[in-house]
Amino acid sequence: MATPLRNVSDTALWVAMYRALESERPDAHFCDPFARRLAGDRGAAIVKSMPRGRSMAWPMVVRTQVMDEIILREVGEGVRVVLNLAAGLDARAFRLPLPESVTWFDVDLPDMIVYRREHLAGARPACRHEHLEADLTDSRALAAVLARVREMDGSAMVLTEGLLVYLTPEQVTTLARHIHGEPRIRFWLTDLASPLLLKMLRRTWQPKLQAANAPMQFAPAEGTAFFVPLGFREKEFRSTWDESLRLRRSVPLARFWNLVSQLRPKKVRHQYRRMSGIVLLERT
Q1: Span 57-283 CATH architecture
Q2: Sign of the alpha-carbon torsion through 248, 53, 13, 162
Q3: Are strands 276-283 and 185-193 parallel, antiparallel or unpaired?
């Protein structure tokens, strides 16, 4: 089946549809009342066209829920600015119970910001909120976005959900250096893939993404150690697999396969646990 996925920005429609499907469950972990309207018909068509489209919703649901938990915790402990880079169709500023004292910036390409404004028209954010247009691969545009953090009071967190995997290692390095150059930024919340995960995805999603000129690329063999020379260390790693079991959003027979995995050597089990995860990086 041909996919309606045209470019990397369209992955936002895809993921928004997964949030809509979770929100409509009677046992939903989160409620995103904007997700279906943001995903639209094309979001539904993308999920339908992707190999194992609906059955592969679980990693996105886990990622959303775990990031929600970490954001609310860190905001509760003093973060006052959230810089959401490549925000896509994330509506956290509108759906999370954030204090009014928090400032939230949703940053993306101009066309995406236009789409967000149109589809979130009339929605009231929980906190101070602003849309910013920027191409994050343009160093000057990125610097201008980060300069806005300097105007704010309190510590800041950068969020890059679903972004890094589509960048090259060189682009991630440049991004990290820019982020570290803003001293108010204390935390960086992201998701991280491993080479093992990319190898598995080459058999499912990668052909469709490649055709849309949106290949998954960044999966450092050294994991979070990649960021250490760039001024960030791992504060917290939440394994997507472990969290899927906790949240009961996983593959069929997940608990059986988890028991079987206990027969593997400890090193192999550790490798599989860190195949994919949600990572909170902290400035060193």
Answers
A1: 3-Layer(aba) Sandwich (3.40)
A2: positive
A3: antiparallel
What backbone torsions phi and psi does residue 222 show, to the nearest 5 degrees? -85, 0
d(CA 116, CA 108): 10
Domain borders along the chain are 57-283
CB 145 within 8 A of CB 181: no
Give, in order, the Cα–Cα distances in Å from 123 to each of 38, 94, 135, 218. Answer: 12, 7, 25, 34
Single-letter code of the amino acid located at 246: R
d(CA 155, CA 257): 41
**Can you tell me the mean pLDDT for 192-217?**
81
Query: From its phi and psi, is residue 82 left (phi > 0), alpha (psi between -120 and 50) or beta?
Result: beta
- Please answer whether residues 216 and 166 qualify as being in contact, where contact means their C-beta atoms are separated by less than 8 angstroms: yes
Q: What would the pLDDT profile of 145-174 be if each residue is shown by its tens digit?
A: 999 999 898 999 999 999 999 999 999 999
Residue type, 111: D
Span 95-142, pLDDT tens digits: 999 999 999 999 999 999 999 999 999 999 999 999 999 999 999 999
Would strands 128-133 and 276-283 be described as parallel, antiparallel, or unpaired?
A: unpaired
Cβ–Cβ < 8 Å for 68, 250: no
Name the residue with tokens 């982020």: 179
Q: How far is the C-alpha of 53 from the C-alpha of 11, rounded, in Å?
A: 13
Question: Where does residue 231 rank: exposed (0-12), middle (13-18), buried (19+ CB within 10 A)?
Answer: middle
Residue 216's closest CA among 4, 3, 11? 11
Q: What is the mean pLDDT of the chain?
A: 91
**Whole-number CA gyration radius for the chain:** 18
Q: What is the pLDDT of residue 256?
A: 59
DSSP secondary structure code for residue 29 in this structure: S
